[in-house]
Amino acid sequence: MRLCMFHPVDKPMERGWVGRIDGDHVVQLAAQTIQAFFSGGAKAREHAVYPLAAVRLLAPVLHPPAVRLFDDQTSFTFANPAAIGGPGLMVGPPIAPSNSLLQGVLVLLPRVASVIGADEEVGGFTILAEWRRTGMPPPKDRDFALGLGPVVVTPDELSPDGIEAAVRVDGKELLRGELEDFDWAEAQAYAAAGTRGRSGDLLAGPALGSVEVEPGSTVELEVDGIGALVQSVAT
User: Fold this and answer.
1) For residue 61, what is the DSSP state?
2) Which pLDDT value is given to residue 73?
3) Strand 67-72 to strand 202-204: parallel, antiparallel, or no bridges (unpaired)?
4) What is the mean pLDDT of residues 84-102?
5) What is the pLDDT of residues 110-150, one digit of tens each?
6) 15 secondary structure, DSSP code
7) Could you tell me if 148 and 166 are in contact, meaning their C-beta atoms sit under 8 angstroms apart?
């Protein structure tokens, strides 16, 4: 199943509706969020059907309880849930505490993330674009933008190990490769040790690599089986 958050192009809304993508259509589901859909047993009544070309896809998980970025199965850093933006996000230059713009190179790290569903099980997988600014001291260098989307693909339709990903900047491919095998169950158990996973938590696997991105560029991050997340960088 390919799940999304969306709104009709002619009816903008901040949070949007939950949808199931079926070919070139989106079927609206009776759930407030994808997290609620998972918590409800991954079942919901179906409502209106919209042409995919007539809707705008949003970040599938807008307010995750926690975001963890893994380097390996037993090493992660937390990221900022408030920094999440979906397809079409305009990544702006972060602002220094003094309100002056910090210089530095903008870098994209492409990842795949699991979305935790009911009973702390993996509900699905999506694309996560981690943005960093080299001129800022950690952890503020990665606190301003996380791309997410365009859809969440359930595990019955996608195994993320060894799938191919590519990054294109202004149409030019700058990075391509297979995402390394990653023990998602071990990472999830490690994340939950001493606490608990909540529906909507994001666990991102290791990055494929990194790409420097110039201001004014359009970036497309494509992952086999999930789709393409397109975002742009402000000038």
Assistant:
1) S
2) 86
3) parallel
4) 73
5) 999 999 998 889 999 999 999 999 888 888 899 999 999 99
6) S
7) no
Report the DSSP beta bridge partners of residue 16: none
Q: Which CATH class is domain 67-233?
A: alpha beta
Query: Which CATH class, in words, describes the domain spanning 2-58?
Result: mainly beta
Residue for token digits 């071990």?
Answer: 186
Burial class (CB in 10 A: 0-12, 13-18, 19+), 87: buried
User: Residue 199: what pLDDT?
Assistant: 93
Strand ranges across the sheet with 164-169 = 90-91, 227-233, 218-223, 164-169, 172-178
Q: Which of 168, 137, 161, 174 is nearest to 231 (CA)?
A: 168
Phi-psi region of 99 (alpha: psi -120 to 50; beta: other; left: phi over 0): left
CB 35 within 8 A of CB 200: yes
* Tens-place pLDDT, residues 40-85: 888 899 999 999 999 999 999 988 999 999 998 889 999 999 999 9
Question: Letter for the amino acid at 170?
Answer: D
Q: What is the DSSP string of 122-184?
A: EEEEEEEEEEEETTS-TTGGGSS-EEEEEEEE-TTT---TT-EEEEEETTEEEEEEEPPP--H
Which parts of the chain fold into alpha helices (H)? Answer: 34-39, 184-192
pTM of the complete model: 0.94
